[in-house]
Amino acid sequence: MPTPKDVPKVRTDAVAKPQIDLATIPEDALLSLRLCELPLRIEGTWLEARIAQLYRELEARNIPFKPRCYLADEWLTPEGEPVIGIPFYLAHPRLIELQRKMMLEAEGDTDEACMKLLRHECGHALSYAYDLNRKRSWQRVFGHSSEEYGDTYRFRPYSKSYVRHLDYYYAQYHPDEDFVETFAVWLTPGLDWRRKYAGWKALDKLLFVDKLMAGIAGKPPLRASGKQLWKVSAIRSTLDRYYKKRRQAEAEDFPEFHDDNLRRLFAEGKAQGETRQAVAKLLQAQRKPLLVEVSNWTGERRYMVNKVYKAVLQRSRALRLVTDEVDTVAVLKLATYLTTLMMNYRYTTRLRGKL
């Protein structure tokens, strides 16, 4: 037994780390924090009520499964794991504000948007919990989960073979997404999906899901828990590095995405009378014919073409681009660029690609 002199002394001069107040911390200090250092939890936030609502919706359908939810780096359900990851920024108003500033949007930041995404991810978790995607009947309706997820996907905007729940015709991405989007529509309270999808081939999928859910009603899941991958408490990247990587990966969602291509098409400088005119001025003068022709040739909706047109106009003005070519040549270049962007978007949901 150690004597008192053998017992190591406890240091009393250690300085405790100050508690982080996300509401008041300066932005530069906030960005220097590691994600794992953020004092976040679901309990006591608005997310707790949204998760409880999801559980009530499942209970109302007699599905005894409550997928465990945790804070992750984005919306996700790890492959094979019956759990749901919710983006960390949704757990605090300051982080929602930062997300909007850094990424222009905070996905799932309203009650309605959050519930749509929770129902979607719940479809993945439910499939893994009950091994639904291994059933031959499931595979005959939706396909095989083993199909590869591509970086992009082709979709048919007017197809009635798929439900429309999340944006960008997400049900057409992959067989798993086709199922979970169909499930999310089926689960949505107050939605008369039989009437809404009457005459659509997608109705057959909804009726299949309705029958499939009746088959698991009252039955406990085969697996009720799983690994919480990409958990925010385990991510050591700083917020600054996190957002730099995100912005690089999603560069086309920011106006500067067009800069390199526009510089290849036109020069930077000052307009000089009739010899050099501003590209922004030409864009404004040709707005209507550009929107009409690009929309007609690509089949993309005019409001989406207009959204990209405005971004190109903004960057042309910011870069002070000019052209000394005749209008017909310069307009042809602009029309070609816009058409290329919209064709990429129409068939892959992305604008990415260089001329």
Strand content: under 5%
Count of the domains: 2
Radius of gyration: 26 Å
Order of helices and strands: HHEEHHHHHHHHEEHHHEH
Q: Sketch the major β-sheet.
A: 3 strands, antiparallel
Number of E strands: 5
Put simply, the count of helices is 14
**How much helical structure, as a percent, in the residues?**
40-55%
The CA-CA distance between the termini, in Å, is 79 Å
pLDDT < 50 runs, ≥5 residues: 1-16
Please explain how this structure is put together.
By secondary structure, the chain is mostly helical. The chain has 2 domains: 27-234, no CATH class; 251-348, no CATH class. Helices cover 47% and strands 5% of the residues. The chain has helices spanning 27-31, 46-60, 93-103, 111-130, 136-142, 175-187, 193-196, 202-216, 239-249, 259-265, 279-285, 287-298, 302-318, 327-348; strands at 68-72, 83-87, 267-268, 277-278, 321-323. The strands form 2 sheets. A 3-stranded antiparallel sheet has the order 3-5-4. Helix 4 (111-130) packs across helix 6 (175-187) and helix 11 (279-285) packs antiparallel against helix 13. The radius of gyration is 26 Å and the shape is globular.
Give a quick precis of the structure:
Helix content is 47%, strand content 5%. The protein is mostly helical. The chain folds into 2 domains: 208 residues, no CATH class; 98 residues, no CATH class.
